[in-house]
Amino acid sequence: MQTVIDFVPVQLVVAALWRAAEVGPDEPINVGSGCGTRLKDLARRMLELSGAPVEIEVAPARSVEVERFTARVERMRTCLRLEPPADALAELPALIRNSPNSRIIQAALGPAA
């Protein structure tokens, strides 16, 4: 699984939409972190954070899959005056910790040793 995707916190997307409504850009503006994350690395990080007792299974890529997407964020910086996050996945621990599914997994695993 070598797919690389540019993840971004939803807060940045909302801020970009708000600013774009104010500015009225005349050309498309990419909103992203400008950095790619391998899906394999994201999956491993999610497993580490959740403690879920599962293994990663890689399915063959479909012909329509995007193998690599990293946003060019220059226009986001200049037109919207927004900076990409230093770590696009910084909110991941809180998302997993506060997820109803995480609580179900932790209850199934029992108390930490």
Descriptive account of the structure:
The chain is built from five helices and two strands; from the N terminus they run E-H-E-H-H-H-H. The protein has 113 residues and is mainly alpha-helical. The protein has one domain (4-109). It has a two-stranded antiparallel ribbon with strand order 1-2. The chain is globular. 10% of the residues are buried. The mean pLDDT is 85.
Provide the fold topology.
Elements: E1 4-5, H1 10-23, E2 37-38, H2 39-50, H3 74-80, H4 92-97, H5 100-109
Antiparallel strand pairs: 1-2
Would you kindly provide a brief summary of this structure?
This protein is mainly alpha-helical. Helix content is 43%, strand content 4%.
Brief descriptors of the model:
globular; 2 strands; 113 residues
